[in-house]
Design goal:
five-stranded antiparallel sheet, 4 helices, alpha+beta, 11 strands, 287 residues, four-stranded mixed sheet
């Protein structure tokens, strides 16, 4: 019990500057956008960049992103330096949306997961699953890998930023300014700003068809937290050490200001600590 209290206290301090509490009433009357689902593909299906698919009926929707080159990091913060040119040598698939409650529920129903995440009384229909720890996400990914025969895992920081940028060099895929009602973050002009998670797909996708890479819920990635990129791997692999306490989170959230939703921004959270502003999406490796 003491350990749980200390972890919660640490979690409250890791994100700076720390904003005020959620403000306003959750807009329950706004219905999720009706977005046609990606098709379920069969074994051995050939995939190419731009393809959207599911490996099974209850599996998360994935998008294949192309190979390419991108500039990772920025000069705006020391934690985002040194800026590096990174090469993505082959396509990979990443979640079209933040993983949803219904997709996690499928793992629960099958006995692959044991934790029932709290939805914070926002409902579960097309909402990103929240209140899951880093290890719990590993368990979900392992279950998906087992039932599909394909490798599902958390993205590395490099993979996540590449997918978020979608070929852009600006703060956000759509430019350097966050604008009005473009992103679900505090004081960003959306109905959910500073209040809670929006249904996935409530905002425009980036040019590669990925939704909510900026704002809505922060997302776990695989990497352990490091103060900057000094000594980081030269490739796309995650930078991890056994037993690291803090993990990197990416993308900003409804709870935090727009600067944390930038493509290059990186923050930390104890891997064991769950939150109502923290979700994830997975990578599915391609042959």
């Amino acid at each position: 019990m003491i350990r749980s209290f200390l972890l919660a206290a640490v979690a409250a301090l890791v994100m700076l500057p720390y904003p005020s509490a959620a403000q306003g009433v959750y807009p329950e009357e706004i219905k999720p956008v009706d977005i046609p689902k990606a098709p379920v593909i069969g074994p051995g299906a050939k995939l190419k960049p731009g393809d959207m698919f599911r490996d099974c009926e209850q599996c998360p929707e994935m998008v294949v992103v192309p190979a390419g080159i991108f500039v990772m990091g920025s000069k705006q913060h020391k934690s985002e330096q040194p800026v590096r040119v990174m090469r993505v040598r082959k396509p990979f698939a990443i979640g079209r949306f933040e993983t949803m409650h219904a997709e996690w529920q499928a793992c629960l129903d099958a006995g692959g997961c044991t934790h029932k995440p709290d939805d914070h009384n926002w409902g579960t229909v097309r909402k990103p699953v929240i209140n899951v720890s880093h290890d719990m996400v590993h368990g979900y990914a392992q279950w998906l890998s087992k039932i599909t025969g394909h490798t599902y895992r958390l993205p590395s920081e490099a993979e996540w930023e590449y997918a978020a940028r979608a070929g852009s060099k600006s703060n956000y895929w759509f430019g350097d300014l966050v604008g009005e009602n473009e992103v679900n973050c505090r004081k960003c002009g959306s109905p959910w700003s500073g209040i809670g998670n929006a249904p996935v797909g409530s905002f425009k996708p980036n040019p590669w068809g990925l939704y909510d890479m900026h704002g809505n819920a922060f997302e776990w990635v695989e990497d352990c937290w490091h103060e900057n990129y000094e000594g980081a791997p030269k490739g796309l692999e995650a930078w991890v050490e056994p037993g690291c306490q803090f993990r990197v989170i990416r993308g900003g959230s409804w709870y935090y200001y727009s600067r944390m939703a930038r493509s290059a921004n990186r923050q930390k959270n104890p891997g064991a600590v769950k939150s109502y502003w923290l979700s994830f999406r997975l990578v599915r490796e391609l042959p």
